[in-house]
Amino acid sequence: MPPVVQDPHLKLLPDFNGPGYQALRDFIVEQIANTTPEQAAEQLQAAYDADKITRVAAWDEQLRVEQEAEALRNQQLREEEDERRAAEERIAEVEKRELEKKKPKVNDFDEDRTTDSVIVPRPTPFALNKLKNFEYIELSYFTPEGCATAAEEI
């Protein structure tokens, strides 16, 4: 059935007793024996009412189908939006976890532990490198005087 383009609920009822339908009433009276013009108008009205009921039912069905289609489209749009939002949240969660992995971890500290007020002199990096590579190094670099000299130079 082709789609109905106008709402049949809004259409005005024709006046079958009026002068516009005189020729049609006369034709019906000539074709059907023992029929008066009033009966012809009633037949036209009955035919119009039956046709209107059919058109109204088609219009209502068309509206129902369109509303169901619109509701389905809206539901699909909401589902797509929910899926997109969920995907964005998953991506954000993965990025957050990656950032958490990259953050340096700060170790706990003991509040009751005291710190030294004096910095102990250390040997020069040159001496430590020689020691690390198992090369010969004079012991004077590791004495308190050698460490103090290294602290002054750095």
Beta-strand proportion? under 5%
The proportion of residues forming helix, as a percent range, comes to: 55-70%
**Total of domains:** 2
Written as H for each helix and E for each strand, in order along the chain, the element string is: HHHH
Tally of DSSP β-strands: 0
**Average pLDDT taken over every residue:** 87
Largest sheet: none
Query: Stretches where pLDDT falls below 50 for ≥5 residues?
Result: none
Distance between the termini: 97 Å
What does the model show?
This protein is mainly alpha-helical and 154 residues long. Helices cover 61% and strands 0% of the residues. The chain has four helices and no strands. The two termini are 97 Å apart.
Summarize the structure.
This protein has two domains: 8-80; 118-154, no CATH class. The chain is 61% helix and 0% strand. The chain has helices at 22-31, 37-102, 125-132, 144-153.
Show the helix and strand layout.
Blueprint: H1 22-31, H2 37-102, H3 125-132, H4 144-153
Helix pairs in contact: 1-2
Q: Main traits of this protein?
A:
2 domains, 154 residues, mainly alpha, 61% helix, 0% strand
